[in-house]
Amino acid sequence: MDDETPRFLDCGEAALSVEFGDSVDPAVNARVLALDERLRAASLAGLRETTPTYRALFLRYEPLEISRAALIAAIEALVGPAGVEASQPAVRWTIPCCYDPEFAEDIGEAAALLGQTAQSLAKLHAGADYRAYMYGFAPGWCYLGGLPQALAIPRRVSPRGPTPPGATLIGGALSLIAANPMPTGWYVVGRTPERMFALNRAPPFLVAPGDAVRFETIDAKTFLALDARACAGETVARRETLL
Amino acid sequence: MNARLFIEAAGPGVTIQDEGRFGLSRYGVTPAGPMDLGAYLAATRAAGADSAIEVSLGGVTLRAEGATLCVAVAGGDFDIRLDGRPMPPACLLPLAEGARLALRAGPSGAWCYVAVGGTLAFAPTLGSRATHARSGLGPKPLAADDALTLAETAAPPLEPLALAAPWLAASDAPIRLVLGPQADYFACDEIDAFLNARWRIGARSDRMAYRLEGPAIRHRRGHDIVSDGVAMGAIQIPGDGAPLALMADRQPTGGYPKIATVIGADLGRLAQLRPGEDLSFRAVDWEEAVAARRAYFAAVEAGATREPLGAEMTTESLLAENLVGGVVNARD
Fold it and tell me: Sheet of B199-201: strands edge to edge?
C-alpha cells in the first residue's frame, strides 16, 4: 500500500475509514493524527466526529449534509498531493509509574519471557519516549507507541484476571495505560497513581491522542501519596507544551 | 412533591437512553444510545421528552406519582396495558397519578421506548444521560423501587391516543447493508455465502452485539487486523467465522475484519429482531443506502400521527374488562 495516498473505506453510508496503512507504525499513525488535527480545525459541515486509531481515521458523518464525494474531496485537499505531513506532539505528559512488584503484578513473568530482569525491564520501560496512538476498548484506555523493541512481547493465549486501576501494561509492540479493572491478555509491568479518566475532574481525560508520554519511576511510598491526591481530583502527571 | 415515575418492576436490561454520548470516541467512550433510533425518536418527540426508558423483553411496570404524566410508548409490538386496559403498541397517554403502565414482550420486537414529557431531574454524564452499563457511564439499569424524578413535566393528552408511525412496521424484507470496510479480507464466494445465507439471531445477543448463527464465514487474509473504528451495525467476523453485528454498546474500536455494515435505515429493524428469529441480508451501494436514509428520516422527522383509539382496541379493552368481571363473578 502506498502510505501517502489513503484508502477510503465505507463503514455504512454514514461513516468512512480513511486508512493510511495496515500496520502499527509511528509514521502511519503520525499521518492519521495530522489529518485528525486538520479536519477538526476545518469544521466541515456534516462531519460529526473523528476517531483516530493506529492506522486509520474513522469519520462519522451525516450523508444528508455532506456527500461521500465532497467529504473525500475535502480530505484530499487537506492531505495534498505530497501526502499529509506527519504531526508532531504538541504536549508531553510525564506520568508517575511504580514498578515495584507489589504494583507491577506481572513484571517478573514478563521479564523472564523477555530474558530480562524486573529491574532492567522497568528501566527500559521508564526510559522510552512514547506517543499516545489512540484510545480503545474502554474509556481512558490509552495505547502508546514507542515501546523499546526489547520489550515487545506476544499477548497471552488466555486473559489474566482484572487489572488494577491505573495498570501500565505491555503487549505486542505497544504499551498501554488502563483506566479501570478489566481482564486482559497484556502484562502488568507497573502502575500509575494518575487517573487516565476521572469524572470528578475537569477535564475527565488528560492525555489526548497524539500527545507525547514519558514515565517517571516512583517508589511505593510516593505512589501511595500521589494516589491519595489523585483520588481527590488532583492531576499528578506533569504537562509540558512542546511546540 | 416533584412528579416522579416509579418503577414497580423491571426485567434485566431496562435502561435510560438518549440519542447517545457523542464526541468522546477518541477517548474510548462508546456512544450507547437507543438500539432503535427511529422508535426512540417516535416516542420522545410525541411526548416532548429528552430521553426515554428503553424496555427490553424483560418488560417493565411503571406508576405515576405526584402528577398526571404525558407518556409516549413506541418500539416493537409489545403488550401494553394502562391499568390493565390494552393499548396499541405505539401510543400517547395521560398517566394519571397512581395509574399503572405495564409493558411486556408482545408478538414481535425486542425493544420498546417509554418517554415521559418533560425533563428528567438528573445531571448528564459526559454530556449524555444514556446508560452504558459496561463502562458504568450514565445511570445504572433500572430496577424495582427506582424512581425517576421530573424537573419539568409536559401537558398530557386528554385521553389515550394511538400513534401511527409507519417506519416502525415489522417486515421480513432483507436487512440492507453496504459491503466493507474490510470486505477485501473475504473471497468473493465467502461474501456470496454471507449474502445468500439465512441467519438466525443467537441467544447470547445483547446491546453490545447480536450473534448471527449460520454458515461459518472464512477469511482470506487472516482474522487479525490492526484495530480501527467501528460503526453501529458493523458485521464483524472473528476467528471462529461466526458473525457479530455490533450494536449500540459496542466497543469504539475493534480488531476483527468487518465484512459489511448495516445501513442506518435498517438498524432499527435489525435491533428489533429477537433471539431465535431469522433474517437475511442484501447488499446495496452507497447511493441506495443514502436514498433509504433520506426516506426513513424524512418520515421520522414528520413524526407519528395521533389517532383516536381504534374500534378494535375499544372492543379488545371491553373484552378485557368483561373477562376481569367474569373472573370476579366466578369467585362470587
Answer: B278-279, B199-201, B209-213, B244-246, B234-236, B258-262, B175-179, B281-283
List the single residue in B181, B251, B289 with the smallest CB-CB distance to A13.
Answer: B289
Q: Which residues in chain A (136-195) have CB-CB distances under 8 A to chain B?
A: 136-142, 180
Considering chain B, tell me which residue range(s) the CATH 2.40.100.10 domain(s) occupy: 175-300
The CATH fold of domain A91-241: Cyclophilin (2.40.100)
CB B231 within 8 A of CB A15: yes
Question: Pick from B177, B225, B293: which is nearest to A63 by CB?
Answer: B293
B window 32-91, beta carbon within 8 A of A: none
* B252 vs A13, A51, A209: nearest CB: A51
CATH 2.40.100.10 fits B175-300, yes or no: yes
pLDDT tens digit string along A80-127?
A: 766 667 788 999 999 999 999 999 999 999 999 999 999 999 999 999
The structural architecture, per CATH, of the domain A7-79 is 2-Layer Sandwich (3.30)
d(CA B332, CA B330): 6
In this structure, chain A runs to a length of: 243
Residues of chain A neighbouring B137 (CB-CB closer than 8 A): 139
Cβ neighbour number for residue B3 with a 10 Å cutoff? 20
Which of B26, B221, B290 to substitute to test the interface with A, most A CBs within 10 Å?
A: B26
pLDDT tens-place string over residues B35-82: 999 999 999 999 999 999 999 999 999 999 999 999 999 999 999 999
CA B322 to chain centre: 33
